[in-house]
Amino acid sequence: MADYIVRATAANNQIRAFAINSKEMVEHARIIHNTSPVATAALGRLLTGGAMMGSMMKGDNELLTLQMKGDGPINGITVTADSKANVKGYPGNPNVIIPANYAGKLDVGAAIGYGELIVIKDMGLKEPYVSKTPLGTSEVAEDLTYYFAKSEQTPSAVALGVLMDKSNTVKQAGGFIIQLMPFATEEVIRILEENITQITSVTDLLEQGMSPEQILDYVLGTLGKIEVLDTLPAKFHCNCSKERVTKAIISIGKKEIDEMIEEGKEIEVNCHFCNTQYTFSIQELTEILNHVK
Ligand code: ZN
Fold first, then answer.
1. From the CA of 277, how far away is ligand 1's center (Å)?
2. Cα 253 to the chain's mean position, in Å?
């Protein structure tokens, strides 16, 4: 099943809800970054949350960036998403290997460590909106929950999960975000809180074969059936190209390009987000230099 996000409302619009299955994008990220299991889980959770948060944006040109900057060995994670649920990201160190946590699970919190979550929303205006909140558990979902409460004043329940199989490929990945609108009644809040505490983990629900729609129905339970607004395909997508990299090289200036040519070696430029290597021959560099004033 290809990845997709469902956007829905429930309880007469008192709740807005998002759910995603993200197995393919997380597996894609694992392959291109060759991530260790804990790095796959950490990056996968942030990609999963990022895709849903991207889909909350309205404008076609809006861009969301999530950075978890912590003192753990993964050396930070960066994810960006657009409003069409195209998402990309990378860990600072894809090879992190650390012991499992007390529950025998991949220790994402320790891999990320203490630090802050930086949320940047570029809405195509002069100044992007930047929010910084401290990381709590660094397990990703809780940190996004805290962000929503603190920076957007929106009480939310965020669940994100990545399950690996024995061969360390991605078996399940997905999540949900449930948000209370300001006019939500005490009764709705109480029932929702009860329901959420019943859920063991989102990967359990995925393992039972639930679709994103079914996950939302399950989570909202007695609050009534969800009203699906739409579904949209989600995927790992990087918009880098040789042309864009060329522009980046031009921006470093004539002197540096001159020096590269003098060294007489072709240069390789690596896209952090998707790991694509772009090679520039001396001839190409010389052509680029001709475009630089
Ligand atoms: Zn790229």
1. 9
2. 33
> What's the chain's Rg over C-alpha atoms?
21
CA of 243 to the centre of ligand 1 (A): 12
What's the gap in Å between 89 CA and the centre of ligand 1?
9
For 189, how many CA atoms within 13 A lie in the half-sphere containing its CB?
10
Local mean pLDDT, 10-residue blocks, the chain (293 residues) = 94 96 98 97 98 94 96 98 97 95 92 98 89 97 97 96 94 97 94 91 95 95 88 96 90 86 88 94 89 73
Q: Cα–Cα distance between 144 and 142 in angstroms, integer?
A: 5
What is the Å distance from ligand 1's center to 246 Cα?
13
CA of 197 to the centre of ligand 1 (A): 39
Q: Please, what is the end-to-end C-alpha distance for the chain in angstroms?
A: 51
Contacts of 210 (CB under 8 A, 6+ apart): 218
Distance 159 CA to ligand 1 centre (A): 28
Q: List beta partners, residue 178.
A: 17, 157
Q: Who contacts 75 (Cβ-Cβ below 8 Å, separation ≥6)? A: 91, 92, 93
Q: The domain at 4-236 falls in which architecture?
A: 3-Layer(bab) Sandwich (3.55)
For residue 272, give the 3-state DSSP assignment.
coil
State pTM to two decimals: 0.94
CATH superfamily name and code, 242-289: HSP33 redox switch-like (3.90.1280.10)
Distance 278 CA to ligand 1 centre (A): 10
